[in-house]
Structure formats: C-alpha cells, structure tokens
Amino acid sequence: MATTTVHPAPAAHLDVLAALRPVLTALRFTGHFLVALVGVIFLGSASEH
Fold first, then answer.
1. Could you give the CA distance from residue 19 to residue 26 in angstroms, rounded to a whole number?
2. pTM above threshold 0.70
3. Gap between the Cα atoms of 16 and 5, Å rounded
4. 10 or 21: which leads in pLDDT
5. Distance CA 39, CA 33 (A)
6. Which of 29, 4, 5, 7 lies closest to 16, judged by CA?
7. How many of the other CB atoms lie within 10 Å of CB of 3?
8. Phi and psi (nearest 5°) for 32?
9. pLDDT value at 8 more than 60
10. Predicted pLDDT at 47
11. How far is the C-alpha of 16 from the C-alpha of 24, rounded, in Å?
12. How far is 30 from 6, CA to CA, in rounded Å?
C-alpha cells in the first residue's frame, strides 16, 4: 500500500498564491489598459464637442 503525505496548510496557501500571481498580474495590466482606453475615448469625445 502506498502512503500519501498530507501537505500542511501554509504550503498549500503559498501554492495558491503562486498560482494566482500571474492571474493578478494579468488583471493589473488589463485594468491599466482599460483605464487608458476609457481615457482615450473620453478625450476623443470631449474634443469632438
């Protein structure tokens, strides 16, 4: 019979953070892109009036 080792909670928590770090980075860049896009649209519509 094979024995399974149970990982402690802190290690699992660190694994979750390590897995989410690229996602959070992507969301951060996406947020900045959206802010810049909204700013360009706002300035473009303001210059038309």
1. 12
2. no
3. 18
4. 21
5. 10
6. 7
7. 4
8. -65, -40
9. no
10. 81
11. 12
12. 37
